[in-house]
Amino acid sequence: MPTIQVALDVPVARLFDYDAPQATEQDVGCRVLVPFGTRLKTGILWAIATEPGCDPAQLRPIQALWRDVPALSATDLALLKFCSAYYHYPLGTTVLHALPPGLRRTKGWTPPRRTGASVLAQDSDNPPLPLALNTEQLQALRGILQVTDRFRCHLLHGITGSGKTAVYLALIQALLAQGKSVLVLVPEINLTPQLEQHFQQHLPQTTLLSLHSGLGEKERVTRWLAAQEGSARVILGTRLAVFCPMPQLGLIVVDEEHETSYKQQEGLRYSARDVAIMRAQQGQIPIVLGSATPSLETWLNAQRGRYHQHSLTQRAIAGATLPRMRLIDTRRTALQQSLSTPLLEALQTQLSQGAQSLVFINRRGYAPLLRCQQCGWSCPCTHCSTRMVVHLRTNQMRCHHCGRSRPIPVHCPDCGSVQLDTLGDGTQKVEDQLRWHFPHARILRLDSDTLSSPTQWREARAAIQQRTVDILVGTQMLAKGHDFPHLTLVAALGGDQALYSTDFRAAERLFSQLMQVAGRAGRSHLAGEVLIQTEFPEHPLFDFLMRQDYDGFAQYELNQRRLSGFPPYMHQAILRAHSKRPERLETFMAQAHAKALALAPKPPLTLFDPVNALLHRRAGDYRMQLLLQSPRRQNLQEFLGLWEKTLTASTLRSVHWVLDVDPVEL
Ligand SMILES: [Zn+2]
Ligand SMILES: [Zn+2]
Fold first, then answer.
1. Domain co-membership, 282 together with 249
2. Measured in angstroms, how far is the CA atom of residue 378 from the centroid of ligand 1?
3. pLDDT tens string 495-519
4. How far is the CA of 369 from the centre of ligand 1 (A)?
5. What is the pTM of this model?
6. Number of domains in the chain
7. Are 7 and 38 in contact (CB under 8 A)?
């Protein structure tokens, strides 16, 4: 009587045995419905056990074995197993979370009834748009296509506007011609409609689907299945798509590989870029990481020859040049609130020429702070150790960490004073200032408050493209990959806090963000200009930025990291724990620390003391963390494996914890 091992979504790092007389080897990777305690749970049939782990008479029978959708393949399961081991996260939870939610339900899958057009967008009537590649693009293409039957990791380092997408498309065409499928990862959901349309124009005969969390539950499963069955040959998706089964997968592309949105920040804290590399390695296929400002991890790997580097140094559109860069020293220039005179003059010139401008500020809301002039009260969030942000449009104070809101107070609740001031700038305040200075200009604000749906994005993009907008005000949402051909002036404000941040990655992010946002200017034949307001013009970062010298910046920053012993020269992991009960949390962390010491970590592993998280309290939860690091990944991984077991054994009720391997935020 066959016993099966089932992976279940429970926080325990083991498989569960069940009795399943009907199961065969072919069913490994199928979904099963099993009794668990008093409930029913959906799991994945992980293996047929040769010998049951317990008395067969005690095994409970499964409730159902679903063969309604294809089983996950051995390759798919191997990738999930690797992820579970590498991120020290329970196998069952890893496996179930990789599935689209529609396949995690405790019922079988019923395909939706098709009405009207098929989701499988395909347009075989139109001929493909031709791709014209320049010499550098062709060189990169040939270099990558040299070896396609083995694992190779390529870095496509191309300046903004250099036409990385055209190289991806030519690669996809070549791989499709070999009968392979291609997975393309993008950092942000809002980029998918634009890219999808662009890709489809060049690949009219190919079924291309996007996969992201914005899709309805049924739609997501339908697309997942189309990839798994091989009918969708190109999948364009956000980080969750990295787990999508694709039997003929021949190439993975990770666009904007440096983006931190590839890292999941809860549950299984995986980096989709790193998982994609593991997947390419397991499948023995090439992977291309594309960026104008690669992460320093990737850059170092390329410098050391582990990754094959291909560079695009020219803008792809003939005649398009890199924008002129100018720093505005805010200590020496008159500021009218947040805007300097040179900046206002530049905007005025643009307006009189009918040209489009972008004002970039990386903070949404009206102002980051409301402060009582009398007593200094500044509207703390009642559930987080942070202050609430002023949102004047909705007359709210809003917490950007837990989402709580309250009306903007008229009096200070502490001293009763009515003298409440707003401090600092957010997108709304800058928008108001611009409206005051340029009452006739058509101004559009773009941040996550105004762009919460793909429809809003589509409308905004149409308005920008049809030139019914003169000045755009926006956050980093605008910096990523968007192509605005009429934009010729970019002004960046308020990036200075990154220069004195405690996060060692802040400078890298600011550089990358400013390079990206600067890259929005002058992408067509119109020359672009970039103005950056700063209080620290002498900071080396700006030197490299003015010359748009990524290589120089990377060299400089890597040197700093090496000297201070930070990643990528160091591999890190953080134990993150949270609880509503601070005393329990402290006990757990002290025990975790003691257990780590008892394991006698072998040098060069360094163990730090448990500390409060930077945001100690979020949404009512107290948060603490403990950092470990080692210059040798293997050393760290071995220790984490041992430590994780003792942590699992000593988990306290009401304390939740997770290991964050290769954290990107502290
Ligand atoms: Zn007060
Ligand atoms: Zn809050």
1. yes
2. 8
3. 888 888 888 999 999 999 999 888 8
4. 14
5. 0.92
6. 4
7. no
